[in-house]
Amino acid sequence: MVTVNKNTSGWNGDNRDPWGGSSNNQRQPNFENPFEGFQKNLNKLIPGGGKGKRGFFLLFIVIVLLWALSGLYRVNADEQGVVLRFGKFVSQTSPGLHYHLPWPIETVKTPKVTIVNRIDIGMRGSSSSSFGNTSRSMRDVPEESLMLTGDENIVDIDFSVFWVISDAAAFLFRIQFPERTIKAVAESAMREVVGNSEIQPILTGARQKTEEDVRGLMQATLDSYGAGIQIREVKMQKVDPPSAVIDSFRDVQAARADQERARNEANAYANKVVPEAQGESEKIRRESEAYQSQTVAEAEGQAKRFVSIYSEYIDAKDVTRQRMFLETMEKVFNDMNKVIIDSDAVGGQGVLPYLPLNEVRRKGDQ
């Protein structure tokens, strides 16, 4: 039989506790009420020693105040606040300090509405790092980039869409997957615009018009969804024929360029020759009209002269006949060498020497 001494305060008859420590000034653990120490410390902080219901009431007040203050929130300058009550949209708040009913009654979301977001269609980016340097490479996604033009050609287009949130509440609750929706709308709009255009303008001078048409069509579609999204810009990064036929396409483009150059040279030559021919034609026409007018005027003058001479001839036939004869002989002999024959001349030869003094004098002056 084992006898236990009630006066023994420790094991083996000493004053040490079962854990090997001295029992002097040591408190043994209380396994029956493990929160007893916490309650005593809390009672020290509460006026009145925590006796009765007063201490618990004050503790409840403190907890309620802290819970109520948890409804304070701040909306930054680049954000827009969206207040939800039991998960349902209640209101929107502008940047600044605001208050909402504490959780779980109300919650607030603060999406950033000034950040310009970017979505790439037809290409994907991948980052790689080497010796501390990070590089970004792009790979083509043919199922997104290959499109059919209005003249039945295939074009490879990579483009980017830049967008911002215009209405935070609509952005959060009207569409379930905003980025997927934007990407699908962008691809659909680009295919529609390209399908109504020819390949040559898209590759050359109509890129800006194509971008603006796609942006407008995207905005109209998203507005019809009530998405709360504004499309800032559509930027075409690459516009090329498919890689499998790009060499042949370049040959065709070179041939078209030669054709266009030859056409321009022909137009330039025509623009030079045609005005000259028109000017020469106009000159000949005017000379013909002038000759016609001159001939008609001379004929009319001759006719009037004949009529006048005839009138004089009727009045004095012999005199008029003699004058006409002399005038005619004057015209006939004006430019001829002249020899005068006189039957009464000395020697009976009938030849009279003629010396043109006027011509001799004119030659002497020269």
Can you describe what's shown?
- There is one protein chain.
- The chain starts with 35 loop residues before the first helix and ends with a helix.
- It has 366 residues and is of the alpha+beta class.
- The strands form five sheets. Strands 6, 9, 10 and 11 form a four-stranded antiparallel beta sheet that branches.
- The radius of gyration is 59 Å and the shape is rod-shaped.
- Among the domains are: 43-108, no CATH class; 117-126 and 139-240, Band 7 domain (Tetrahydropterin Synthase, Chain A); 328-365, no CATH class.
- Helix 5 (178-195) crosses helix 7 and helix 8 packs across helix 9.
- It is 48% helix and 20% strand.
Give a nutshell description of this structure.
The protein is of the alpha+beta class.
CATH superfamily of the domain at 117-126 and 139-240: Band 7 domain
Helix count, DSSP H or I runs of 4 or more residues: 10
Low-confidence stretches: 1-26, 127-132
Please name the CATH topology of the domain at 117-126 and 139-240. Tetrahydropterin Synthase, Chain A
- Strand pairing plus helix content: what structural class? alpha+beta
Range of strand content: 15-25%
What is the tally of beta strands?
13
Terminus-to-terminus distance:
185 Å
The CATH architecture category of the domain at 117-126 and 139-240 equals 2-Layer Sandwich
Shape: rod-shaped
User: Helix proportion of residues, in percent?
Assistant: 40-55%
- SSE run: HHEEEEEEEEHEEHHHHEHHEEH
User: Largest sheet at a glance?
Assistant: 4 strands, antiparallel
| CATH C-level name of the domain at 117-126 and 139-240 | Alpha Beta
